[in-house]
Write a structure and sequence with these properties.
Shape: globular
Number of helices: 5
CATH class: Alpha Beta
Order of helices and strands: EHEEHHEHEEH
Oligomer: single chain
Distance between the termini: 9 Å
Strand content: 15-25%
Structural class: alpha/beta
CATH superfamily: Flavodoxin domain
CATH architecture: 3-Layer(aba) Sandwich
Radius of gyration: 15 Å
Number of strands: 6
């Protein structure tokens, strides 16, 4: 059996998206997938990815992916300053310039305030559009995890929902193949 590989690349200001990324990675590992869990600030260029699927996660800022200005606002609200240097939007912009050599499946997730669940726009929707434009092949619907207010914590049950989404992704996108 060929080893299945995934990268979970995430941006997190208050730690909520990082917690979701860890839950997603754990669920993929439970499905016997080798996973690289990487904050966006340490992520390799898209052209260097050697994976079957990349999962991209970010917090929703102003109904979309963060920008330098919105990350600076998050720092003013208590987020660690070292997390504001770069975001998923910038990583995907670089991926458009330096795309993967072959289309890699991509799935997206975000965190956002539970009080605005039904408003338009989210980091995941924007990430999906940018990923497609950078040469990734979108798979599975976007996943949103909800937080209390701006800085969280995650609402009860959200990590379980994220694990279930990742388990579904593993089953649909990375099915086990037998060599016998």
């Amino acid at each position: 059996m060929t080893q299945r590989r995934a990268s979970v690349i995430y941006e997190s200001m208050f730690g909520n998206t990082a917690a979701v990324a860890e839950a997603v990675a754990d669920a993929l590992r439970a499905a016997d997938i080798t996973v690289d869990l990487v904050p966006v600030s340490a992520a390799p260029r898209a052209a260097a990815l050697a994976v079957d699927v990349v999962l991209l996660g970010a917090p929703t800022h102003a109904f979309t992916l963060s920008r330098a200005r919105t990350r600076e606002d998050a720092v003013r609200q208590g987020a660690p300053a070292d997390r504001a240097a770069t975001g998923l939007r910038e990583w995907l912009a670089d991926a458009r310039i330096h795309p993967p050599s072959a289309p890699i499946a991509a799935a997206v997730f975000d965190t956002r305030s539970g009080s605005v669940r039904h408003l338009p726009g989210s980091a995941a929707r924007k990430a999906a559009r940018l990923a497609r434009g950078a040469g990734f092949r979108p798979v599975l619907g976007a996943h949103s995890s909800y937080v209390d207010g701006i800085d969280g914590p995650l609402l009860e049950g959200e990590l379980d929902r994220a694990r279930a989404w990742a388990t579904e992704l593993a089953a649909q996108v990375l099915p086990r193949h037998s060599t016998t």
